[in-house]
Amino acid sequence: AGLAEHLQERRQDGAAEVSAREQDMEKSRPLWDNPLQFVFACISYAVGLGNVWRFPYLCQMYGGGGFLIPYIIMLIVEGMPLLYLELAVGQRMRQGSIGAWKIISPYLCGVGIASVVVSFFLSMYYNVINAWAFWYLFHSFQNPLPWAACPLNSNRTEYEEECKKTSSTQYFWYRQTLNISPSLEASGAVQWEQALCLTLAWLVVYLCILRGTESTGKVVYFTASLPYCVLIIYLIRGLTLHGAVNGLIYMFTPKMEQLSNPKTWISAATQIFFSLGLGFGSLIAFASYNEPSNNCERHAIIVSLINSATSIFASIVTFSIYGFKATFNYESCINKVILLLLNAFDLEEGSLTADNLSEMKDYLMATHPQEYATLLPQLKNCSLEAELDTAVQGTGLAFIVYSEAIKNMEVSQLYSVLYFVMLLMLGIGSMLGNTAAILTPLTDNKVIATHLPKEAISGIVCFINCIIGLIFTMEAGNYWFDIFNDYAVTLSLLLIVLVETIAVCYIYGLRRFEKDLHTMTGRKPNWYWKVMWAFASPLLIISLFIFYLTDYILTGTLQYQAWDATQGQLVTKDYPSYALAVIGLLVASSTMCIPLGALLTLIRKRLKRERVSTVA
Amino acid sequence: YAWDVNEEYLFKAMVAFAMRRYSSKTTTQISNVLLCNVTDRVSFWFVVTDSSKNMTTVPGSQVEAAIRMNRNRINSAFLLSDKTLQFLKISSTLSPPVEPSTPVWLIVFGVVLCLIVAGIVFLVFAGIQQRKKKNKESTERENLEEKGEVTKTIENGIPCETLDLKAGHINGVFAADDERFTSL
């Protein structure tokens, strides 16, 4: 009995020393001023451009209102558990991603490094979007808006060739913003205007992360709340626009047959997964600055609910804008047809209207068959559904479709400024999370933190990213952007989160994790969370992973959309071999970190054991 | 407004006016302008005759040039524009967009850039000053300790400060051990 008591005393002393060391770390670790800053930081990070430009597209493609069913199911099954897991890990370990996974198991330091590498790739190309948003924002202070009308050609007789073939907004995006080259191989020169905007974007990010959580904590008040103000303004404006109802009806009529399409469920799962920003290490970094007693379960639920609600809200706005734009184009098309017929048949002004157009067309075809036949190729069949059907996602939606809708509103400069400020807030909010994911492990590392102050580390990271980001400002930069956007993070993230979930549940031990959460926050996780963590979420991620792999393998050569200036539209081309090599390198460099990290730790342990044994 | 005979009269007057201004002759009368084939669409052909040269028509190129010169006067007489009053074969030159000497976007860019750089410089300097103040404070505290003026919290007869900073140190073995918890 005496021995047992003695051992217990020793263990208690050990525990006291551990907690003393933790308090020692706590002394120096910065904290959020209040839990609200943490929630706002997570919301600002999770609510990003994907909510605005990817979710409406998915909604449209996969069954309108019916898409909400798989979306909400995936949110409950996959989104909330994984978010809770990451926040809990960060709050418990109180370190950035590298340190946190090293504590869980030293063989898992590769997971943390893979997270940092993936975050690094993301921050490289994501800030280019902010640069474009700045460009459009600065150009919104003109009357008329520069994308409202085509520029004239050199002898001022008519509009530019390229602009005539396509629309003025597309011309402004492809020619005046990107100055895009016809293919990936033709790299072209760095566009100095874009380079300036990129530098400004990185300076803004540096300003926000300069002082760590002090500055980030204040900035996220704005980046989280301002987009909602703008979305509300746009909602009111959008719903009162002429033709907005068409878009809304079109979007929300559920097409239930899409539910049987497996792609619907996979897209819902993918969207939830990437929208929350899991696996980058940002959530772990944010949570590591929390008080240990913080109720991260409630915060996880709040953040994921707000993220999904924002997606739905943004898609309402987007679809009323779509409806307005489609109706506007449809009516212009009808007016053009009417004008053509009036001029050709010398009819009185006002005799042809949109309502009697079809009857009059039949009448004209009957009375003047030859002239009508010659006119037929020019008479386009205007269809509202065709206009609404043009589903666009990504940069096309944000910059082309929205600017086209904005140019037709009254006081378009105001709406343009509001919209691009909102895009900037969303983009910068996500960038704060990304850079936090890179900087937190760096500042946690004792070696680097003693030699360089926080400001210098942030500055160096921003500077390196800015220099590399100049690639995306070249003429072929948008093609490289698409490569990074599609391939740099998707597969790696799935693998990282899979390893994370398995590590916490099976290597660290679910019971141990549960006990940690209990000591930390004072409440045990529900049976629901445990079931999700142990079974449902890993299974889901594995199936997503398998789907993506088979998809890539089955499609064979990867292709991309190149802008053809002569035709005025996008054409499909194959990637050259060096681009494929870059893609492979991107995926490999992040995924290989995990096994390499485990291998290196194994080797290091074996060397240490040998050294110890030889010394002894 | 409806197109009637009076409007046609005005049109003839405007064309005559254009011809007079262009060729500086004062002989063109309204009766020299002839309209034909007026349709409901309000489209018609017109010719200008030359009364001095025995009622032959003035060549089309001259008429075109005259109208081109006075296009905006003709437009405003009818409260129309280049888009709504169309002369076939006379394509209008499109007005070039107004371009200020410095592009507007550069001005806005410059303003925002200056603000951001000012913010960065301010924060960096504030950080450096804060660090200098903290260093000064900690050296001051060390000096005061040596003079024995700071109240020390004592534990086990050893002052806590020295425990933390100098003499005592955290048991590195326990911390450095990779496996903090004995595996079950």
UniProtKB/TrEMBL annotation, chain A:
- Choose one Gene Ontology CC annotation of this protein and give it: apical plasma membrane
Q: Which gene encodes it?
A: Slc6a20
Cellular localization per UniProt: Membrane
* Similarity annotation: Belongs to the sodium:neurotransmitter symporter (SNF) (TC 2.A.22) family.
Q: Which UniProt keywords apply?
A: Glycoprotein, Membrane, Metal-binding, Sodium, Symport, Transmembrane, Transmembrane helix, Transport
PROSITE patterns reported in the protein's UniProt record: NA_NEUROTRAN_SYMP_1, NA_NEUROTRAN_SYMP_2, NA_NEUROTRAN_SYMP_3
* One Pfam family recorded for the sequence: SNF
Start and end residues of each stretch annotated as Disordered: 1-22
Q: Name one GO molecular function term.
A: metal ion binding
Q: Where are the transmembrane segments?
A: 35-55, 67-85, 106-126, 192-210, 219-245, 265-289, 301-322, 417-439, 460-481, 487-510, 531-550, 578-603
Membrane topology category: Multi-pass membrane protein
Indicate what this protein is called per its UniProt record: Transporter
This chain's source organism reads Chauna torquata
Q: According to the UniProt entry, where is the signal peptide?
A: none
Q: Which residues bind Na(+)?
A: 46-47, 51, 275, 307, 426, 430
One GO term under biological process is: glycine transport
Highest taxon above the source species: Eukaryota
UniProtKB/TrEMBL annotation, chain B:
Matching Pfam families, A to Z? Collectrin
> Where does the Collectrin-like domain start and stop, copy by copy?
1-184
Give any single GO term for biological process. positive regulation of amino acid transport
> How does it sit in the bilayer?
Single-pass type I membrane protein
Taxonomic superkingdom: Eukaryota
**PROSITE patterns of this UniProt entry?**
COLLECTRIN_LIKE
| Annotated localization | Cell membrane
Its keywords, alphabetically, are: Cell membrane, Glycoprotein, Membrane, Phosphoprotein, Signal, Transmembrane, Transmembrane helix
* InterPro entries tied to this protein: Collectrin, Collectrin_dom
Can you name a GO cellular component term?
Answer: extracellular exosome
Show the stretches that span the lipid bilayer. Answer: 104-128
**Name of the protein in its database record:** TMM27 protein
